[in-house]
Specification:
103 residues; mainly alpha; 94% helix; 0% strand
């Protein structure tokens, strides 16, 4: 009968609407999860950038310390050479003074 057919169609429409509603809620939940994952990814990217900046800063500090150490080493070598030259000069003066008739 027509009434039975209308009830069947009504039940089918309710079932479809229920499925569509469930699908819409599922999609909204997935979109929310995607947004959360994207936000987390952006946070991780920010942390990676901060770590990269810190590594760069540390490399600059190490480079600066290395250059300072090199300069100090060169200064030490220069002082050693100067002391050796002064020692040779004083020895030459001592020899000259010890040599008879040098004055």
């Amino acid at each position: 009968s027509v009434l039975e057919r209308c009830l069947v169609i009504s039940d089918e429409m309710r079932a479809r609407n229920s499925l569509l509603t469930q699908a819409a809620w599922g999609r909204a939940r997935l979109e929310g999860e995607i947004c959360t994952l994207h936000q987390r990814r952006m946070e991780l990217w920010g942390m990676e950038m901060a770590e990269a900046k810190e590594r760069q800063r540390l490399l600059q500090v190490v480079d600066l310390h290395s250059r300072i150490w090199d300069q100090q080493r060169e200064e030490s070598f220069r002082r050693i050479r100067l002391a050796e030259e002064e020692t040779l000069h004083f020895r030459a003066l001592e020899q000259e003074a010890a040599t008879p008739g040098s004055r």
